[in-house]
Amino acid sequence: MPTTNESTPIYIDEYNYTLPDERIAKYPLIKRDSSKLLVYKNGKISESKFSSVAEYLPENALLVYNNTRVIQARLEFHKSTGARIEVFCLEPLTPADYAQSLGATTECVWKCMVGNLKKWKDEVLSKVVKMTGKSTVFTAELLQTEGNTHSVKFSWDNADIHFADILENAGELPIPPYLHRKTEQSDLTSYQTVYSKINGSVAAPTAGLHFTPEVFESLKLKNIEIDEVTLHVGAGTFQPVKTRDIAEHHMHTEVISVKRDTIVNIQKNLGNIIAVGTTSVRTLESLYYIGSNLTPSPSPSGEGNKIFRVSQWDPYQQDFNISAFDALQNILDYLDANKLDVLHAETQILIKPGYQFLIVNGMITNFHQPKSTLLLLVSAFVKGNWKSIYDYALANDFRFLSYGDSSLLLND
């Protein structure tokens, strides 16, 4: 069970490396699965092509991916003076549910980042949004500020139009800032996984960008089962660690949802779980802490579909004397008692060196930025051996970050 002390100093400078700009993939390969694959198993490194990933996965593995879809979350307005204001939608506030907010027909409120904020002040910004056969006057009103984010109320005068329609027609896909280029038409396809379907992310779960129908067919031939979870990736995924000690870093919160049938499948396949991407890792590991804090065989709570929350330090603040199987069973019992088919939760989990993985046995992941929480997660999984993996990738022409190559990391 997890016993790592939250206060154990971990200095972010120890997770730094030199990443030349030319090693950052600015564009994806034309064929997704032709990307390189680094395989780390039993402490040894080899390489292949992603199209052959099934050959390296254990038989009877359950592959779990994140089915979130990136929304065109960046909106541009102009003041009456001509000043350009950029509004970057992060997460819904009213309604707080992603599906309800994206399906809103007259207004909604989102937490946003705002570019050129000092020029906005009190003016209600507006623009005409045109789409096939209809149009609407779309407005944005700044409500309040908290830290570096802002509550923005969006309104429009055509009830036949959903907020998702407005984003689709007036928004811009927010590709990562380290690509140092504008979004292009090709990104609308290449920056989505082939299995994306639940709108809500402002960044892609990029480990999944390598998958193709041919790869899925090869997995099927090897009898590798596939299932899915949802974690809506927030802009915090790009947030650098600015504190010397990771204990002082504030981890961002993201929304997850997992179907009851998926939890049953995970429970049945414990010991053989391969996560596609760090977002799937964080979702799966969060299930343990949600279940460990639930009462076995609960009576109906009367709270409807309660939102559970995992804080960044939950894994490190107490000893958990419960197995992963029993933790998942507690979730299933809760769902059954409340006649629910889906678990909804928020996770702020920070996976750092010393963390003990309870559910995930392997992961597919890209190569991450220096001094990032994602690199800490990788280091935790490979028991501190991240440097040899990244040195190999740098020395052997692997492409880095979102549009780059990937790695398959397997525990002994």
Task: Walk me through this protein's architecture.
- The chain has 412 residues and is α/β, with parallel strands linked by helices.
- The mean pLDDT is 93.
- The two termini are 18 Å apart.
- Strands 2-1-18-17-14-3-12-13-16-15 form a ten-stranded mixed β-sheet, with helices on one face. A six-stranded antiparallel β-sheet has the order 5-6-7-10-9-8.
- Helices cover 21% and strands 28% of the residues.
- 41% of the residues are buried.
- The chain has two domains: 12-69 and 192-410, QueA-like (3-Layer(aba) Sandwich); 73-172, no CATH class.
- Helix 6 runs antiparallel to helix 8.
- The chain has helices at 53-56, 98-102, 163-170, 187-190, 213-221, 260-268, 278-292, 324-337, 373-381, 386-395, and strands at residues 36-41, 44-49, 62-66, 68-70, 74-78, 84-94, 107-115, 125-131, 134-146, 149-156, 198-201, 225-232, 254-259, 273-276, 308-310, 342-347, 362-366, 406-410.
- The protein is globular, with a radius of gyration of 22 Å.
- The protein contains ten helices and 18 strands.
H/E series:
EEHEEEEHEEEEHHEHEEHEHEHEEHHE
Return the CATH architecture of the largest domain: 3-Layer(aba) Sandwich
Strand order of the largest sheet: 2-1-18-17-14-3-12-13-16-15
Describe the global form: globular
Separation, N- and C-terminal Cα atoms:
18 Å
The radius of gyration over CA amounts to: 22 Å
Helix percent reads 10-25%
- The CATH H-level superfamily of the largest domain is QueA-like
Give structural attributes.
QueA-like, 10-stranded mixed sheet, alpha/beta, 10 helices, 412 residues, 18 strands
